[in-house]
Amino acid sequence: MPAPGASSGELQGVVVCHGALAGALVEAAESISGVSGVLVPVTNTGCDRGTLEQRIVAAVGGRPTVVFVDMASGSCLVATLARLRSELDVKVVTGVNLAMLVDFVFHLGQSPGEAACRAAAAGGKAIRVP
Q1: CA–CA distance, 16 with 84 (Å, rounded to integer)
Q2: What letters, b where the CB count within 10 A reaches 16 and e where it falls short, cover 54-68?
Q3: 28-60 pLDDT, tens per residue?
Q4: pTM assigned to the model
């Protein structure tokens, strides 16, 4: 399902994670940014790979999308790439973190490719050893 309140041509983010992580990340990003309705959480809980693929495709809904996946391997990434690898308006970023999601919701005027690169850079910059 597309993000609530968003029109069909606007960029959205779909967050695909193991367990309850996607929902928690989306809730935290919305709380910090004050921006809601542009991130859609998808969990792999309680489903096989085919069902997970269906959940991800439904969340994308044919819209320009950046799919944020928790790990650079595993069922969430495999399911995402299996169905969306050839979609021109869908880009995938692995290693999702809160910093990249917060940055993403403030830069929705970009193409999926530009937004994916920006999100990956923002997420990488947030990783520090203080």
Answers
A1: 13
A2: ebbbebbeebbbbbb
A3: 999 999 999 999 999 999 999 999 999 999 999
A4: 0.92
